[in-house]
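User: Sequence for Exostosin GT47 domain-containing protein below. Tokens please.
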Amino acid sequence: MPHHHHTNPSHPPAARKLLSWRRVVAACAAVAALVLLLAAAPATEDPSRWRSYLMGPLPGGTRKETVAAAVVARSFAGPAASTSSPAEAPLSSLGEINLSARIAPAAAPSMFLVPSSSPTENFDDGSMEEPEHPEIKRNLPKESAPFLKKEPISSGLPTISPDANGEHVMDTKSVLPLTPEAPLWSTAADEELIYAKKEITNTPLTSDDPDLYAPLFRNVSIFKRSYELMERLLKVFIYHDGAKPIFHSPELKGIYASEGWFMRLMETNQNFVVRDPNRAHLFYLPYSSRQLEHNLYVPGSNSIEPLSIFVKNYIDLISAKYPYWNRTKGADHFFVACHDWGPYTTKLHDELRKNTIKALCNADLSEGIFIRGKDVSLPETFLRSPRRPLRDIGGRPAAQRTILAFFAGQMHGRVRPVLLKYWGDKDADMRIYSRLPHRITRKRNYVQHMKSSKYCICPMGYEVNSPRIVEAIYYECVPVIIADNFVLPFDAALNWSAFSVVVPESDVPKLKEILLAIPESRYITLQSNVKRVQKHFLWHPNPVKYDIFHMILHSVWFSREAAHVVGFGL
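Assistant: Structure tokens for Exostosin GT47 domain-containing protein:
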């Protein structure tokens, strides 16, 4: 007698399917509950602490903490999602794997699926300030190991500096303070870097180039040859792991526009980006320091440790999933961060902090994180209109600039209060304000002041960087930079003395005297050079040769050449 499956006649086929689906849902709920129980258990080892953090806070946390945990869970699926070793992953699919697609954690609240608007305060006078948290610097996460203290060594790659006569000469002295280890194995990209280094070192003098004005550069010949090699050789691999809003979510407006515009243009680039990581000279980590702060910082906590943990876990994830980080211990990887906290979020991961090329707006030598010669000083660009990034570019001719010096802004940091103390509303030639009074803005707003001034004062705020430097260049006003220990943007390539004035913080009481001592002919040259250098700081929806996108990428490329050569002991 044939065997028959017994069915309950009271349940039609559709109902049976529904019951089966409910059993699946119930099973999934049970697994989720088990994971949450594990997450709530006390952590004794790093992996457990990682899983606990990624799954979110315990009940009773603040709304911001809950939201932050949801964003973390959405951005990562955790290392356990991958069952095969990095080397076993099929090469053809490495560029297409999205880790968040393997395990679908609970979705973050809908407000975090799209980057939220910036809390930057746009004053009526047109200036731009960012509410910062100065107390953070007293509560930074402790380093996982003390900084290595080594004397600088020579990389063999020349740097360029002006001699006493203003001519530009090669300097083959130290570039990098740390010696990176040799890669675990060599690739064709390594051979290309060796070739590029030799080509740059032996570059002949360049004759007049209509696209490059030699006085703006430390050595225009080396810059031109290095840029040509970048255009011909450079390949960049971008990790696809990570979800919005922290990853792949560029913010194109406000004072953090530099990191957002670079991310957008890098991820849509077809000339440099490759899908095969074995061809890459550089690996881009596409996370936003601005979105880290906006989504993970808990107001009132005075701690950025959740941000640092998040970044550490991300690096641990890609180093466990792929072999490329471990090949060089991160020396061929780079990230771009314009938020002031960008440097500090690296402090929990030694290799990220010491080896990776960090393109930072907060390029402060005094804090031991930014490494001159390896890291890149990123220009801080404030864009009011992402659709029209070149809006308002330009200014009055030199002869029509009737104001000697101008500054307006909040009293952030150590320099601005001193500036206001000595020059605030005390001298008709020195238009220094904490905020432009309404009686003045009725006649001339913030931008118009910059367009009408000979010198635009660019003091540091809470950190050394300031968007006013690039604003001054946009409005063809000679920037006067007051920020000790600040490595100026594109420092390896540009000769800032040709188009700016750098004043030590201690000389603020003598500021007018310093500016008046500059001969008129020298000022005319400075202002003319500001107009010439402007094109190297402009964002274009479709990048053009020598613009700011290419200048940032070239700075990272040039840094990698130097670091790579040291790694091979050449």
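Residues 235-384+550-564 form one domain.
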